[in-house]
Amino acid sequence: MTSSRRNTKFCDKASAASGSSAGTSSEHFDHEIAQLTKLRSGPNEYISKLIGGKNKDWISPVKMLAARESNCFQKSKFSMADGCHMLSRYLPVNGPYLVDQMESCAYVSQFSSDGSLLVAGYQGSHIRVYNVEKGWKVQKDILARSLRWTVTDTSLSPDKRYLVYSSMSPIVHIVDVGSSVTESLANVTEIHEGLYLSIVDGEDNGNSFSIFSVKFSTDGREIVAASSDNSIYVYDLVANKRTLRIHAHELQSLISLIFLVNTLVVYIGLHPKVIVFSVMEDVNTVCFADESGHLIYSGSDDSLCKVWDRRCLTSRCQPSGTLIGHLEGITFIDSRGDGRYFISNGKDQTIKLWDIRKMSSNSACATTPRNYDWDYRWMDYPEELKKLRHPNDQSLATYRGHSVLRTLIRCHFSPEYSTGQKYIYTGSNDGTVYIYDLVTGALVSKLSHHETTVRDCCWHPYLPIVISSSWDGMVIRCEFRGDEVNPPPLKRRRRRRYLI
């Protein structure tokens, strides 16, 4: 922890009105989210004034406990914010402890909404569901059906009954996690029903595309998926059909063709004919903005984040707004859950914080010309580009330090219950989980326990436990255990690695 603080990095402000670009503090973060975060995770204001001190934003647990016993809180217990203030100081940095290890790369890890289950998806067709409350024992071992290349995403229903998984295929499969079958071999020991996103009213549109992201709605009645054919799909599980397709991310270009020398010109009267063409971009990530399910956030290789309101979609499927700021493609989006704020991870090696009230209806100024040839899958990001900023950046803050290379690396808000969403955290290509302070942008901890890329990570909704899944095949947990006896440290298994 000490070394992490010595190497603290700060977030950049999105505009001059937000203050300086480095060394910012919560007092100078001129935005509503700073106050909302403080209300969720700050100490009791009366106690802050009573105890005083140089740092009123941090009061020791001993003093808070003494104040509670003296009834200084004027009630018999801590508030939710008081609890978050204490719990958020005890980051899950002890470890690592091995949850599981496979011969293939681990791509996905996520807790259930109550934290009792952990889901991990591997490239080698396996999806395992672990029972957290029973010593991380494998409760269900799923062998995926019709897998292409890897399991790209999984999502567990809010009631923990069903799990959907996707791959480089237009079919999303659903499995009954609540059944008594432990070894779930697709259509052998258990049915994995296919949800066909490429078919409408029984007619196949002939497209073969990949699904990169899939999420359940809060009520568990729908799933939303992001695909490589520039589209967002919504599937109604009750009606058992696809109900919506949005052509979400297309690069629109205007080209005037004028015949000069050997160039063809088509004239209509005295005016050159203008042709509009579209270039389809992969939609890498999608999620519901809040519990209502009306708003959807999407991110694409076109470097744009878009907001979609299903209540006012027309036949042209225009977004409610576009958020501009990333210089490269978006790899993941996570919503704060309030229908207003979200974060995005980008191939420009940054995480950005957004407020949808700042979105623009015009994306004409979104793209900037690129004069370099770079592919994130096998090349390092050019050093001279790391400090560049979009001239029309609409983000509230930018967080730097991690690396987004090789795969669609994911980022998340920390849990509301234990931290008041005070932190954001992300995987990284250097085998590390980075934890940033949301308001100050400070790098508060680095969990460096993997040999290679950490694609996904997840924080337990109630306990100080962080899970990371890596291309080294390991799913690892870090935690804060207090005075409990720590389990033996992780012993790495030496094995031969092949490049794929």
Automatic annotation (TrEMBL):
What residue spans carry the Low complexity bias annotation?
14-26
Q: Where is this region: Disordered?
A: 1-26
GO BP, one example?
A: proteasome-mediated ubiquitin-dependent protein catabolic process
Give a single Pfam family match. WD40
- WD repeats: from-to residues: 204-245, 323-364
GO cellular component term of the entry, any: Cul4-RING E3 ubiquitin ligase complex
Concerning SUPFAM superfamilies, the annotation shows:
WD40 repeat-like
Q: Which PROSITE patterns match?
A: WD_REPEATS_2, WD_REPEATS_REGION
Q: Which UniProt keywords apply?
A: Membrane, Repeat, Transmembrane, Transmembrane helix, WD repeat
Give the stretches traversing the membrane.
251-270
The record, for InterPro entries, names: DCAF, WD40/YVTN_repeat-like_dom_sf, WD40_PAC1, WD40_repeat_dom_sf, WD40_rpt
Quote the protein name from its UniProt record. LEC14B homolog
Q: Which organism is it from?
A: Chenopodium quinoa
Q: What is the lineage of its organism?
A: Eukaryota, Viridiplantae, Streptophyta, Embryophyta, Tracheophyta
